[in-house]
Design goal:
The complex is a heterotrimer of chains A (about 270), B (about 190) and C (about 450). By secondary structure, chain A is of the alpha+beta class. In chain A, about 35% of the residues lie in helices and about 10% in strands. Chain A contains ten helices and eight strands. Chain A has helices spanning about 1-30, 35-45, 55-65, 80-90, 125-130, 145-150, 175-180, 205-210, 220-225, 245-255; strands at about 100-105, 155-160, 160-165, 185-190, 195, 230, 235-240, 260-265. Chain A has a two-stranded antiparallel sheet. A two-stranded antiparallel sheet of chain A has the order 2-3. The longest helix of chain A is centred in the N-terminal third of the chain and has 27 residues, at about 1-30. Chain A is elongated. Chain B has about 190 residues and is mainly alpha-helical. Chain B has one domain (about 15-185). In chain B, helix 7 crosses helix 8 (about 170-185). Among the domains of chain C are: about 1-25 and about 115-285, NADH-ubiquinone oxidoreductase 51kDa subunit (Rossmann fold); about 375-445, no CATH class. The chains are: A alpha+beta (about 270), B mainly alpha (about 190), C alpha/beta (about 450).
Amino acid sequence: MTSILMTAGTVGGIGLVCGVALALAARFLAVKEDPRIAAVTELLPGANCGGCGYAGCADYARAIVVDGAAINLCAPGGQETLDRLAAYLGQEAEAGEKKVALVLCGGDAGKAPRRYAYNGVADCAAAHAVAGGDKICAYGCLGYGSCARVCPTGAIAIRDGLAVVDPALCISCGACVKACPRNLIQLVPVSQDVHVLCSSNDKGPVVKKACSVGCIGCRLCVKLGGDAFEMDGFLAHRRYHESLDEETGDKAVDKCPGHCIVRRSLRS
Amino acid sequence: MREYLLIVIGAVLVNNFVLTRFLGICPFLGVSRKLGTALGMCGAVIFVMTSASAVTWVVQHKVLIPLGLGYLQTIAFILVIASFVQLVDIAMKKSAPKLHGSLGIFLPLITTNCAVLGVSVLNIQLQYSFGKALLFGFSASLGFALALIIFTGLRERIDRAHPPRAFQGVAIALITAGLLSLAFMGFAGLVQP
Amino acid sequence: MKTIRAPYRVRGGVHPVYRKDRTREKTIVDLPPPALLRVSMAQHLGAPARPVVKKGDAVARGQVIGEPSGFISAAVHAPASGAVKAVDNERTPAGGAAPAVQIEPDGEDRWIEGLEGLSDWARADAKTIVGKVAAAGIAGMGGAGFPTHVKLSPPPDKPIDTLILNGAECEPYLTADHRLMIEHASGIVQGLEIVRHVLGAGAVRVAIEDNKPEAIAAMEQALAGVAGDVALVILETGYPQGAEKQQIYAITGREVPSAGLPMDVGCLVENVGTALSVRDAVLAGRPLTERVTTVTGTPVRAPGNVRARLGTPYADLLAACGGGEAFAKIVAGGPMMGLAQPGLDATTTKTASGLLFLAPGEIATYSSMPCIGCGRCIVACPMLLMPAELSQFLEAEDYEGAEGLNVMDCIECGCCSFSCPAHRPLVQHMKQGKAHVMLKRRAAKK
């Protein structure tokens, strides 16, 4: 009996001493941290993709609680996360639509030929720096995969020298947008399916020599589609926040002389 | 004097805790990717191993043995070591929050780390005096630090290289650790009995 | 005036096969202006000039068609008299885009009125002379294209005691400077004396590689009457003897500090072509409108050294040398540091020292392998860097680590790529690394 008491007493005694020491340490060396940071971290998806612009979900949570950062910066979290954050923090949840990345270029090997044989580092920024890139088109996708390499979900594939995003895998973190040295990738609302797949601001005759699906700057889409399209120099842009009905969209796709306006669904 | 020198050389080179005794492999593999983090871990381990050696020696010789409770060694030692690591965790969070962030999960891993318990138990097994126990604990942690720093340097280079697909990641790291261990075998026989 | 051998050896470097025999004996041929000149506004380091003419304007040779647009910028002048056909963006030899003034020469080749020289330059002050150099739009003709008037105005706390004239021309195939020294030695020396007067430099050193004995003889003769501490230094032939930091070391033993400039060690290096242009600008008031380019390579039928107007299309240069066919690669410049061209559309600029054509059997395409750690690049690097380490950091996109290993000191000479048995694209890595570091520094400044 005594031995059991001795044992229990000794171990308990050591435990007590350690416990007191730790309690004191926790008291005097405590770091004040807002408990809300941990709670908000829990509400975020935990992908740590950096799409919000902060170094991971915990960092974004800290920014939200301490710096008052906007709560709608988490693209992978989408509307669900936004609603939960708004509910927890007592803020308004703005409606936002899911977006996916789209490469605004249609010039694969068959459509946009190369002008020299590039023998160097297989990286788009590197290729762009050598005599302005190995495509005749000075604006188009070089297809060396810099975007595909940074995509955290492997959503980008290089087909025939052209980068293509799979909308089903895209979490719209925006890493590819930053990686492309020619700024070809845009985050597009998922409900839109008429797109201008060209980023060349060259004049029509120059584009015709460079690519068979390039925008020649004829402005026909603006005439047909009104506010849904706009011209920037010699390049047409789709204004995604303006609506485009099915009929007009079909007309634009059919009539575009450059064959650069396409109907492609971004839904998964 | 000679005895103390032998303890140091023995713990650091001949019977290196990581590379010869294979204790403390967890933080060795986990924290060896960046030199800054590795150095932080070295500091933490040196502090924990040295102080744990001292306190566990005192607990063994002044509490357990006089009370005839030698069989409580393991549990008592774990209690002490766990508390020490928790103390380091709290102190580091206050004084060096960035390091605390980058060490992350690996700091409490020193608790379940066999190296710390190993050195405490070895002190008793080798029947060291308090002074020698303290020195042994300190030298063992220096040996850990040496191995960790060398390995981090290697690992930083490996991370920039292109091993074949099957070897990438932990695989090549473990092979390298094995080769490093093989290299340290060269110290065997350095300390003549 | 004395002739000495370089007292110090350049560290690192390589010894490529020079192949200068095809053009070293060819006298410089003056080319008349082509059917259409396309004069780029980006002919120098720094901000491109701003065009000040428009379509339809009539211009005379030497008329200003582009004004400097910043502190480091230079003026551009019409290389021939004629009519401006267009002012449009064009691709530069480096691949970027810059405005270019298209001029259709009228055949008269009339110089603009009122060009005045400064015959009494020895009594003029430095500012006046530098003003004339600036008005002439002179930029470093050795290849860097740094605006000369800026180079000749070092800050007062960086006095220049040694002026070095660079006649090394270390790039294989190129012989333009070599011919300039043989045919215009006295003009070059006049330019040298003017520059010495502007800088107030005590010592003058003319550097020529020992593979150019005729040039050495010609310059020795021209320098004979020059007063002061003047010496002709014969450099051991090697690449990159013509790189200014290496040349300063070989002649003076002084090392330009990391991230520093030659003026930090009291030196200034000018190319022989630039010196000649300075003389034309100061003595005759004539702006820079033409330069000598070596057109060479086995596919070229009649290789030679041609003096063409700035803005001459490369196609015209080739045609003037008998044309050529079946070339696999076109290089603007020399084979070590030149820029590969996708076609013959680009035009000559102030820095167009050579146009090299390589036959299919003379080039090779490689797929690069991982670094084998042989260290040949480390031995070859003239800036004492570690290209092997650097390229590993840059492949892993660790630009901070690369900055720590002094990637910004890389002069992109190509000695490392030249030596690499694994055929790694080392210079391309360095260029990418430097671009990233520059971007980061610029972003940090904001």
